[in-house]
Specification:
globular; 14 helices; alpha/beta; Rossmann fold; 54% helix; 5-stranded parallel sheet
Amino acid sequence: MKLSLLLEGRFDEYFAAAHAGRPLWMFVHVPKTGGSSMNGELMPVYGPSKHIFIDYYEEGRTYHEMIEEAVDKFIAATAEKRFRFCTGHLLAPQVTRIMNTLPDVRPFTMLREPVSRVISDYRYQRSTMHPGNEAFRAQFPTLEAYVDQPGETNKFSEHLLPDELRLAGDPGPCIDYMIDTFCFIGFQEMFPLSLHALTWFAKKPRFSTVRRRVRDREVDDGVLLTFDTQEKIRERNGLDVAIYDALSARFFAISDALTSYLNEVAPRQEPA
């Protein structure tokens, strides 16, 4: 199932491939791209499903160590149960390992305009929805301090690209890899169309009904967003910006035709 078929407007071939076989759909959830809401829509459609997650309160271990262990447990669980869908804040090495270990894994993801994603991530982590919000506010009292943190840049690339491509920093091979690897790449800015396509993979097209991980509003008073800050975000997240600009342009170019196609062959179900 090739994403290139979709981007070339070859919709019959693309969705025929999507409907073939008995795949495991793997949603690689990049934070603050609309993924929690998308998960809420897709997990009931694609059951049995599995959320691969870690315990953030376990001290003395890195995220990489804990997510590797969570993936180990998931892979072991597939010996006893066939899953149709899995999801999680997976990093590129775990994505590759699952694809190399289990049969017919079909990865997909959601992207979001990088400046908006960074600002949303900062505001969310300051909010009461985030368990570590007090420590986060103390560490990053301003958006500028967060933007300057080296480990908080190019989050698309961290989750979706092998280290050798990410560290090389050349957008061309990165974009080619994503088109070759991922079966679908949706966009937060076009959430309804992305959802329509993804639910049609299961032949259960539907309207959006779920909105999750919406931050509380009172934290916005402490966030000063200036033009210079936005430009700094774009500069510090240059690889993500290049990936987003290239892939969103290709998706948006076929969005009207895809909308018409899906409305004809896959009328969406009204919310219950």
